[in-house]
Amino acid sequence: MISLKHELHKFLACPIDKKSPLLLLVLDDSSSEIVSGVFRCGECTRFYPIIDGIPILLPDHLRNQSQETNFLIKWKNKLPDEIIYQSLPFNIKPED
Fold first, then answer.
1. Average pLDDT, the chain
2. What is the pLDDT of residues 21-65, one digit of tens each?
3. pLDDT at 96 > cutoff 60
4. DSSP string computed for 27-84
5. CA angle, residues 16, 18, 23, in degrees to nearest 5
6. Domain presence at residue 96
7. How much is the pLDDT for 1?
8. How many whole angstroms from its chain centre is CA 55?
9. Structural domain includes residue 68
10. C-alpha–C-alpha distance, residues 5 and 18, integer Å
């Protein structure tokens, strides 16, 4: 399995506005490698999931809404509300 190393994330930038560094929230890791997590751009509020060690750093029109919505639902208990309910390009609606 390909995994993202903890120390490499500081070299990544938002593909939309090119801001760096991205905020990293690790959800599941194995010591030196990130298996699941989220990057978030503080400028444009987009989130970029890390799924099976692969960061999904794509422009909005190339992203998979179903995959990313399922990711948000899966990690809802570990993600901050601003990522779940307010991030771009996808988010989920709060439960009533």
1. 88
2. 999 999 986 667 888 999 999 999 999 999 988 899 999 999 999
3. no
4. EEEETTEEEEEEEE-TTT-BEEEEETTEE----GGGS-HHHHHHHHHHTTTTS-HIII
5. 95
6. no
7. 45
8. 7
9. yes
10. 21
Split into its structural domains, the chain has a count of 1
CB-count burial class (<10 Å; 0-12, 13-18, 19+) for 95: exposed
Q: Which band of pLDDT confidence, cut at 50, 70 and 90, is reported for residue 73?
A: very high
SS3 85: helix
By three-state DSSP, how is residue 14 classified? coil
What's the token pair of residue 30? Answer: 């194995």
- Which pLDDT score, from 0 to 100, does residue 5 have? 66
pLDDT exceeds cutoff 70 at 7:
no
Q: Which domain holds residue 62?
A: 4-86
In a domain, 91, yes or no: no
Q: Is residue 93 part of a domain?
A: no
